[in-house]
Amino acid sequence: MANKAIKCSKMFDSQTGQVRENVVIFTEGERIAAIAPLAEARLEGYEVIDLGERFVTPGLCDCHVHLMMDGQANPSATKPYETIADWTLAALKCAHADLMAGFTSLRVVGGNGFVDEAIRDAINRGEHWGPRLMTSGAAISTTGGHADDHYSPYLNDELNTAPAIGDGPDELIKAVRYNIKHGVDMIKYMSTGGVMSRGTTVGAQQMSLEEMKAICDTAKMYGMTIATHAHGTSGIKDAIRAGVTSVEHGMLMDEEGVQLMKEHGTTLVPTLIAAERIVVKGKEIGTPDWAIAKANTVFQQATKGFKRCIEENIPIAFGTDSGTPFNFHGKQAYEFELMCRYGMTPTQALTAATKTASELMRKPDVGAIEPGRYADIVAFDGNPMEDITAMTRCSFVMKGGEVYKA
Ligand SMILES: [Zn+2]
């Protein structure tokens, strides 16, 4: 692989929030070697890539996706008719779409049959192309909880989800260890009901503090971070008390929840787009009425909690829940627009998808254009500092020093 010199007129520095002008990024193999002002840069011996007027950022990180869901109206509906093989092929396509949109790192928080782990390993071995994946395996849930979602007592999807369903600390500890045994990078569990699980009350807590603590303590013993799906007010607060690394969605968070986040250093992954897409598009595409009603309930409250977290300087990492209804892989940069509509500056939104995301994932090799980090570099048509929709126009993708889109 030739070493490259990438000429940038505008480059987002995620560590300072500043936009640097007229610089050259030098790569050496899969890493960034140096950054120099254009006027002083010596380009001989390098393959020169001129990004012109494009806006350059570190490869983006989406901290909440589901590769095994592809945006259809009711993800649970087709499950019984598909096999793990169908899902694997579909999931790889979703990973490709995300990379082409500028997302060089994904945190995959909930899949089945350890498909995400197989895809992650195949990409790492160079057998398939795709983004860097951090995966959780199946989301751990209680009986009838948000991840125990097939509803019909006559269906048996033991192969896919049963090991991640448990009640009481002992069964949940077993579920954590079962996922770790199969090579997950992190743990995800469901604290409360959700929008897309039929029969769950979105605000209802589904796991006791004692159960959550058993999951978190076990995960930490293995050096893992913990993400929890939590919409409901009490479920969010018990999850923070139990020691989760991040609250996902956090849509019905109250003021006490905000203060607990602050006290415990918990990160919020807001996924505004997931609820907004169902609110705006659900009826038209045929999402079940019960799901639309729940999305409406949570979305209004979510924008208020989001604003409070910004005001209180709670770490907020970019995540989209890509794969939920009408929330397609490769189209998730719309979340940047929502983050700005509901209270962030463009700089804050870009920081959420770079610096804060890499910190949440404990991946110091990504999230910034700095010597020593991976040469994950992407560029957009337009200037997001003036028009945030530019983030939906990705026109250059480099991952590990290799160009995937130009
Ligand atoms: Zn999700």
Q: Could you characterize what this model shows?
A:
With 406 residues, the chain is of the alpha/beta class. It folds into two domains: 4-58 and 368-405, Urease, subunit C, domain 1 (Roll), CATH 2.30.40; 60-332, TIM Barrel. It is built from twelve helices and 15 strands. Strands 1, 2, 3, 4, 5, 13, 14 and 15 form an eight-stranded mixed β-sheet that branches. Strand 9 (187-190), helix 5 (209-221) and strand 10 form a beta-alpha-beta unit. The model has no long low-confidence stretch (mean pLDDT 93). Zinc ion binds at residues 64, 66, 109-110, 321.
Summarize this entry quickly:
With 406 residues, this protein is of the alpha/beta class. Helix content is 34%, strand content 20%.
Layout: helices, strands, pairs:
Blueprint: E1 4-13, E2 18-28, E3 31-37, E4 47-50, E5 55-58, E6 60-65, H1 75-78, H2 84-100, E7 103-108, H3 115-124, E8 132-135, H4 168-181, E9 187-190, H5 209-221, E10 226-230, H6 233-242, E11 246-249, H7 255-264, E12 267-269, H8 272-285, H9 289-311, H10 334-341, H11 346-352, H12 355-361, E13 377-380, E14 394-399, E15 402-405
Helix pairs in contact: 4-5, 5-6, 6-7, 8-9
The structure holds zinc ion.
